[in-house]
Amino acid sequence: MTRAFNFNAGPAAIPLEVLQQAQEQFVDYHGAGMSIMEMSHRSALYEQVNNEAQSLLRELYGVPDNYRILFLQGGASTQFAMIPLNLVRPGRPGAYVKTGAWADKAIKEAKLVGETVIAASTESDKYMRMPTAEEIVIPDNAAYLHVTSNETIGGTQFFDFPQAGNVPLIADMSSDILSRPVDVSKFGLIYAGAQKNLGPSGVTVVIARDDLIAESPTTIPTMFRYSTHASNNSLYNTPPSFAVYMVSLVLNWIKGKGGIAQMDQFNRDKTKLIYDKIDQSSGFYIGCAQPQSRSLMNITFRIHSEELEKQFIKESEKEGFVGLKGHRDVGGLRASTYNAVPLESCQALAQFMADFQKRNG
Ligand SMILES: *Cc1c(COP(=O)(O)O)cnc(C)c1O
């Protein structure tokens, strides 16, 4: 068996140990005579999966007791609409920090729903950095302040989250959830599609403060109300049971690796290998993000000629690398180095980058 050096942006690498464990349990889950996919989501076995995934996430991330953990569908993209649907009110706009392609999409959806305010934007810097705390202006009447913790396409990441005072801070953590310690109590709501750092696509994790989601407007459809899912332990309708099961395996894997602080160090070690190659290339490779905002999840970089970029991708694919092409909207190159990407993949990429430069520099 050969496993690719998988640098896909999402869906992305899943730990080999997790895939093998799922394979072992695939046909007959805990002696049930069927797979987890084939059993009722009301069964005791599935309830255990649902509860274990929540309690592991609570333990690993230090989620306080007054927060609910929900497993929803529709991806992070549905959260772009669900957040304003549940929280924006007349005279209480949603405030947004505009930092790139994903923040932009969140803003576009929010505008369809109600009043929005831009609290800060780094568009004039081509989204190559995150704003500083001083740049973010939060209106007193804001229903919330929304940030994109990690811009997956641009390759920028927040290292100091804004202080929003009494305004609930909401973060799209789709591409960096569980990659580093976070003080959950500083947030009103955190959400993430699973397919980057938590497992397969199909489930979206929402971590939300009780009081913020207790009373969703009854004028919005039942499935779009946080209160519906909170009061039914994410079992109001049929959940994406296999995806939730896979998330529970990934959480167990993180726990086995020592937890989030260890993940953080591991991710720093991995990305350093590649950022160092960029910085030591005498300008052959050009990092896209400004150094203070460089993402530890998505490394975006360029080569001075597009011809060489094409050649880089072509040759890398021949050597077993997958997913190094930049997002179609921005071009260039991108290496996504989520939790499940092994150190060996990053070592191999650093070596490939050095060799490629030697041949073409
Ligand atoms: C991938 C991504 C999304 C979109 O997620 P879907 O699950 O495909 O809807 C949203 N925000 C960020 C930051 C992402 O990386």
TrEMBL record:
Pfam family, one: Aminotran_5
Predominant localisation class: cytoplasm
Catalysed reactions, as listed in the record: O-phospho-L-serine + 2-oxoglutarate = 3-phosphooxypyruvate + L-glutamate; 4-(phosphooxy)-L-threonine + 2-oxoglutarate = (R)-3-hydroxy-2-oxo-4-phosphooxybutanoate + L-glutamate
Cofactor (UniProt): pyridoxal 5'-phosphate
The keyword Protease appears for this protein: no
Alphabetical keyword list: Amino-acid biosynthesis, Aminotransferase, Cytoplasm, Pyridoxal phosphate, Serine biosynthesis, Transferase
Residue ranges of domain Aminotransferase class V in the record: 5-317
GO molecular function: O-phospho-L-serine:2-oxoglutarate aminotransferase activity
Function, in words: Catalyzes the reversible conversion of 3-phosphohydroxypyruvate to phosphoserine and of 3-hydroxy-2-oxo-4-phosphonooxybutanoate to phosphohydroxythreonine.
Family: Belongs to the class-V pyridoxal-phosphate-dependent aminotransferase family. SerC subfamily.
Alphabetized HAMAP family for the sequence: SerC_aminotrans_5 (MF_00160)
Subunit structure: Homodimer.
Protein name in UniProt: Phosphoserine aminotransferase
